[in-house]
Amino acid sequence: DQQVKQNSPSLSVQEGRISILNCDYTNSMFDYFLWYKKYPAEGPTFLISISSIKDKNEDGRFTVFLNKSAKHLSLHIVPSQPGDSAVYFCAAIPKTGANNLFFGTGTRLTVIP
Amino acid sequence: SQTIHQWPATLVQPVGSPLSLECTVEGTSNPNLYWYRQAAGRGLQLLFYSVGIGQISSEVPQNLSASRPQDRQFILSSKKLLLSDSGFYLCAWTTGTGENQPQHFGDGTRLSIL
Fold first, then answer.
1. Are B108 and B88 a contacting pair, CB within 8 Å?
2. A30 lies in which domain range?
């Protein structure tokens, strides 16, 4: 049972425009949410996170929004750059457990120059 | 600074052969350690995690096992590989203290079973 879902397997955006990656979850025990970026043949790299007590967290060009009532979060990248082209994974940590991550299936972002 | 090493980067093994993948972390003490697998077209699935030497928790029943013989060493093993064991295996660590700590990943091992 996939508790974290990324329904868009791919997304193409023009350079300089905004990229919006979406993620939905089903488990109300999730307490902390993260986005990872992954290039081919490499491990995922931590990008940005948000606690369930917040609805927005910003770090440079990256902003994560959390809507707890809808069990939905999104990652905004603005402006998008060709180097942002990668697979983005949404992940969640429940309130209990040894920081175990539940991952979505990923969205492949392509930024077109 | 902390670093995580996984090897080998790629591995081709015949069905029924044994497996040993190794992961080591440097620059930190008593980390939580994790093994994940990404099968083709799927997200990352947690296989095992460890909060200390000799302490292993299994998340998914399967053909694999894990061991933690030293504080910063995590090993993924199998006695007899199956075709379904093919995938991309990732080791990760996080600090053992505090909640909601991001996990940091190695570069993975791509395992192909023939």
1. yes
2. 4-112
CATH assignment, B3-113 = 2.60.40.10
- Closest CB to B102: pick one of A31, A49, A105: A49
Q: Which of A45, A93, A104 sits opposite B43 (nearest CB)?
A: A104
Would you give per-residue pLDDT tens digits along chain A (113 residues)?
789 999 999 999 999 999 999 999 999 989 899 999 999 888 899 999 999 999 999 999 999 999 999 999 999 999 999 999 999 999 998 887 656 788 999 999 999 99
Instruction: Check CB contact under 8 Å for A41 and B106.
Output: no
Residue owning tokens 């909060």: B51
> What is the residue whose two structure tokens read 């997200």?
B43
Rounded to the nearest 10°, the torsion over CA A66, B92, B43, A88 is: 50
> Which chain A residue lies closest to B109 (C-alpha atoms)?
A41
**Can you give the residue ranges of every domain in chain B?**
3-113
